[in-house]
Amino acid sequence: MSEHGYAGGRLNLPFVGIATFGKKPYVENWDDFQADVAVLGAPYDFGCQYRSGARFGPRAVREASTLFSFGHAGAYDHEDDATYLGADVSIVDMGDADIVHTDTVKSHANIEYGVRKALAAGAIPLTIGGDHSVNIPCIRAFDEDCAENGPIHVVQIDAHLDFVDERHGVTEGHGNPMRRAIEKDYVSGMTQLGIRNVSSTAKEGYEDARARGSDILSVRQVHKLGTEGVLERIPEGARYYVTIDIDAFCPSIAPGTGTPSHGGFNYYDVLEILQGLSKRGNVVGIDLVEVAPAYDPSESTQILAAQILLNFLGFIFHNRQS
Asked: Which of 144, 158, 206, 212 is the most buried (most CB within 10 A)?
C-alpha cells in the first residue's frame, strides 16, 4: 500500500489537497532550500489608484494552477514535440511575503527579502502580485546578483507605461515601477510591450523613458511587427527580467484586474513572445501582477495567469537544456 493507504498512489485531482503553485512543495524555511524556481506571493495592493483587490491574486493564481498539476512526468506538447517541466525541474512555493497594512516600506522590504532568499537558493524568483508596485522590491533585490552576474534587461508586458516619477509624494505606487527600475545602474535597458490608449504616464514620461533607453510598442505595433520582429528589437544573449501585468491582455479574456484596458493582447500574442524570449537569452526573474479575482467570477483571469506562467517556465528550462 502506498501513501495514505491507496494502492497505486494518490490520484491527487486538482480540487484535492493544499493549493500551492502547481501543487509543488511548500518551503517554510527560506534559509535552507535549493530549487530551479521559487514562487513567492506578494499580496500587496495598497499602491492602486483605482480598484483594489489584487491582494487576493497570489491565492487565486495558486488555486488556478492546480488545474495544470496532473501527473508527474511533465507536460507533453504535440506542436513542439517536447515535454515541459519534467521531474528534472525543481519548483517550490515559498508562500507569501508578510504584508503590513498601510505600510508600503515594510511590505516592500518583506517582498524584497523573499526575492533575495530565492536568488540565494539559486532559483529563478517568480513573484505573484499584488499590484504592480511589487515589482519595485523585486528589482531592488537583484543588486547583488547583478553585481556578480551582470545587468538585467527588463521586458514589461502591460497596458500602461508605469513610468511616473512622483505624484503627490508617492514614488512607489503601481504607476512608478518602471521608472524606479530604469534608475538602477544594473538595469541595462527596457522593452515595454502592449502600452496603449489613455495611459498611466504623461507625454513627458514617454519621452523620458525613450531617452533612458526604453523601447515602447503598443499592441497594434506588436501585431504589425509580428513575434520575430518584436524579438529582434530585444538585446540578444541578455539576462532578462520579465514583468507581466495581467491588464496587458484584453479584458474580454482577463477582466479580473483593477485597471482594465480594451484592445489588449490575446493569449498566443504573449505566449509566443515569451517562448521566443526564452530562446534569445537567459530569463532570471519573473513577476505577474494585478490579478484581482473578485472582478472575474468566471475565474478565467487567474487560469490565464497560471497557464502563462507554467508554460513560460516550461519554455525556459527546455531551452536551457537545448
From this structure: 158
